[in-house]
Design brief:
five-stranded antiparallel β-sheet; alpha+beta; 12 strands; four-stranded antiparallel β-sheet
Amino acid sequence: MMRLPKFRYLAPKSVREAAVMLAGAGPGAMVVAGGTDLYPNMKRRHQTPETLVGLRRVERLRGIRGSAARGLVIGPATTLTEIEESPAIRRHYAGLHEAVRSISTPILRNMGTIGGNVCLDTRCNYYDQNYEWRRAINFCMKCDGTVCWVAPGSEVCLAVQSSDTAPLLCALGARIRLVSARGERSIEAKALYVRDGIRYLSKGQDEILTGIELPPAGGWRSAYRKLRRREAFDFPVLGVAVCARFEGELVADIRIWLGAIASAPVEAGEAQAALVGRPLGDDAIEEAAGLAYPKSKPVDNTDFAVRWRKEMTRLLTADALRAVRP
């Protein structure tokens, strides 16, 4: 049986109190809400924080506020189930509903939070193993070692960002609120992620995610498609998020983001540009899917053959584009 390492648990009741506790505990501290990702990682000794600052008693960090007309703010400690069951999310942000509904199992969605998924640790076949397995290969660059076993010559860790909500929030143009004892800031969702499997977030260690701001729905249509071995449980090995706005039958604006193929979500800029000002017909969809294909550069550190995962980019992109057609 894998056991948690020893740690001190703090339970603040306000964001300010949590920020002060986190700053006071130093670099050996982390925040936790649902813990569905962090606690298993601690059992495998991926992370061994001396102090955990729990956020479950901070009411400000829970719930969905606002409206589709003005935009919504989702508290990061809101459970995935609460988001999945939100009528406003289901109706006006369909892609986010699809992404959240695809995460793990109903039992884990009851405990897991949107903030945890947004800040999900990067994954790799050489990293997501127990301590003894990792010690047998002399560990890896991401934790306790010096070599990236996916590509031994690589200077950066190639672990994959497997968050389902990350590419969708990037496509929506969402913003992320961050608070620390030093102050508060707001950044675009796409600015939160970094192409480095170890330092995969631009969020500081002493910063707490306090809000996820969704822009006004404003006629935008969104969809999310996901590739995984077991439809009922697994992390994505490819995710495609599409968000589009139409003027009549013509595409006025569109965003296509790919997930689970790199350490950060990838924007398919050429595919987007090819669709603006055109009807979203079958020929246009096939062209855009072909342009998204070169952006998908998975490496051999998750499930399925790399070439097949790359080829599936065409199919999932086309399927997501068809889903947002008026």
